[in-house]
Amino acid sequence: MKIIKVEDSLEGGKVAFDLLFEKLAAGAKTLGLATGSTPITLYQEIVKSDLDFSDMISINLDEYVGLPVDNDQSYDYFMREHLFNAKPFNQNFLPNGLAEDLDAEVKRYDAVIENHPIDVQVLGIGRNGHIGFNEPGTSFDITTHLVDLAQDTIEANSRFFDSIEDVPKQAISMGIASIMKSKTILLLAFGEGKADALAQMVNGPVTENLPASILQNHPDVIVIADQAAASKL
Ligand code: GLP
Q1: What pairing do the DSSP bridges indicate for beta strands 62-64 and 221-226?
Q2: Ligand 1 site, residue 134, Cβ cutoff 6 A
Q3: What is the pTM of this model?
Q4: Partners of 145 in the beta sheet?
Q5: Which pLDDT does position 149 carry in this prediction?
Q6: Active site (annotated) includes residue 128
Q7: Which residue range is the domain that position 24 belongs to?
Q8: Is 67 within the bounds of a domain?
Q9: Among residues 76, 92, 119, 130, which one is catalytic?
Q10: S-S: 175 plus which of 55, 142, 167, 183, CB 3.0-4.6 Å?
């Protein structure tokens, strides 16, 4: 695991962009993308650039269950706002959180990932060490699945909603086994709220209690952390 320390999220976005640029130049075609506040500066750098993504494929990590795509908290909406409207891709895949048959949707998404191996996966990290919506206790062997969100995650994400009651209680998430199949993983972490999770991810035991710790077993992980997030490393 390579760790790059940066001053702040702005510099982090630039460093992540440069790394992504190298991978694109080397032929990367399928990007695994994340939502949340963390990847925003990276997406801003992409939008500012003159890179063309029209032959690229994106596969997002997760989506809330039950939010229409025009709800501004859906991850579909987030991705269009922050990236896809400005940089059209050949194809954008996200789980459909409104699918009537969620089990079938989970299977469909697994097939999407199987058919489009991810070259570069962008990740944030939750305060409790989750990646995607793989909460503590999730099996490392799991692929796409329906998740009951942890209370900690609901609380953390409630800042984006009018009230905590509005935060969806479930999501569809790419699984840890799917994430681990990505060729390169770029994990970004900004702010002191991530310091404990990051320290455990890097130096703690590999345990399902801290989902991101599995990344110690991946051959090509680059962590970009600001001073605050890296303060306990
Ligand atoms: C969310 C997302 C994750 C994200 C994490 C951190 O719940 N499902 O993909 O990495 O929590 O969010 P943020 O970047 O806003 O801190």
Answers
A1: unpaired
A2: no
A3: 0.96
A4: 173
A5: 93
A6: yes
A7: 2-226
A8: yes
A9: 130
A10: 142
Q: What burial letters (b/e) apply to 43-67, b meaning 16+ CB within 10 Å?
A: bbbbeeeeeebeebbbbbbbbbbeb
**Residue 121, in any domain of the structure:** yes
Closest CA to 141 of 181, 88, 91, 89: 181
With beta carbons less than 8 A apart as the criterion, state whether 19 and 2 touch: no
Q: Is residue 233 part of a domain?
A: no
What angle (nearest 5°) sits at the alpha carbon of residue 154, between those of residues 13 and 208? Answer: 75
User: Per the residue annotation, which of 62, 63, 119, 226 is the catalytic one?
Assistant: 62
Domain count, the chain: 1
Residue bearing the CA closest to ligand 1, atom 9: 132
Domain membership flag for residue 42: yes
Instruction: Tell how far the Cα of 133 is from the centroid of ligand 1, in angstroms.
Output: 8
Nearest partner of 61 among 141, 137, 120, 140, judged by Cα: 120
pLDDT bucket at 185, cuts 50 / 70 / 90? very high
Q: What pLDDT was estimated at residue 152?
A: 87
Q: Supply the mean pLDDT for the chain.
A: 97
Instruction: Check if 95 has its Cβ closer than 6 Å to any atom of ligand 1.
Output: no
CATH number where 46 lies: 3.40.50.1360
Nearest-angstrom CA–CA distance, 130 and 186: 15
Ligand 1 lined by 192 (C-beta under 6 Å): no
Choosing from 60, 92, 128, 134, which is the catalytic residue? 128
Please report, to the nearest 10 degrees, the dihedral formed by the alpha carbons of residues 97, 102, 106, 108 taken in order. Answer: -90
Is residue 130 annotated as a catalytic residue, yes or no? Answer: yes
